[in-house]
Amino acid sequence: MYKNLAQALSFYELEYDKPYYIALEKTIYKFPKNVFRVDFYVFCICTGGKMTVEIDNKKYLITANNFIITAPATNLKFRKKNKNFKMKVLFFEKFFLLKNISNPFIIEKMELFQNSSHSIVATQKKEVKNINYLLDYLKQKNSKQGKFTSEIARSIIINLLFEIAEITAEKNNASLTLENSISNIYLKFRSLIQKHILEEQSVQFYALKLNISNKYLIEIVKKSSNKTPHEIIDEMLLKEAYVLLGDTSLTISEIAFKLNFNSSSSFGRFFKKQTNLRPSDYRAEQFLTP
Q1: Is residue 75 within 8 Å of 55, Cβ to Cβ?
Q2: Between the chain's N and C termini, which has fewer beta carbons within 10 Å?
Q3: What is the DSSP string of 59-107?
Q4: With a threshold of 0.85, does the pTM exceed it?
Q5: pLDDT per residue over 192-217, tens digit each?
């Protein structure tokens, strides 16, 4: 589990104390072997070769000019890559980007994520010309720290996100909009789940936190996502389960307790309903031996 950039970059023996990190066209020789969760935004564009990546337990093949963008609390696993695989990658923390911005949901309202927490977009080189320019410019500004480097970096990243949003919208045959097509209540609901998922899994708890009725929360969530609140809670709980199952020092019973199930069997029933696998079968499939 990587909850900040310093933790994530320590895997690569990099010391970094800033709220964003950028690397351009580096050959990557190693990746974490197990599923891990990142609690910051990740943008990656492939500039050569190919790699298979698993995001929230879905597999994707990434090739040249494909890009990935993921939201915080997304589970990642890097599977296979060829020796020619290269990428440009940007990590950034949400609070850094939102400094001096009045709308706390500006990123969510860009509708960047086709799959609730991530997007995988295939493009041509000319389509990502501006994205590559902005990444190069950000790297250039970051290499020489000045009085306003953080402010310039923040502005570049916001512009980059709008470029990504425009491409994503075009690929979806949709127009880019910042209107309230996604309700603020829905976004607050998802934010609350990320914060409390290990302690609370009832719809009523979140409705009370939002000072609305269960019925109104169901209506808002359904309109914004075509899912029920319970389905979204289960999705988030499953993400946590995948991460904890990757920690082979924990028994199934210990994981059930951490996820607030009253027994390992009730956790097993939940996991099988969501994945058609028992927790132990998932570990065996992933070669995760305690």
Answers
A1: yes
A2: C
A3: EEEEETTEEEEE-TTEEEEEEEE-TT-EEEEEEE-HHHHHTT-S-TTHH
A4: no
A5: 998 999 999 999 999 999 999 999 99
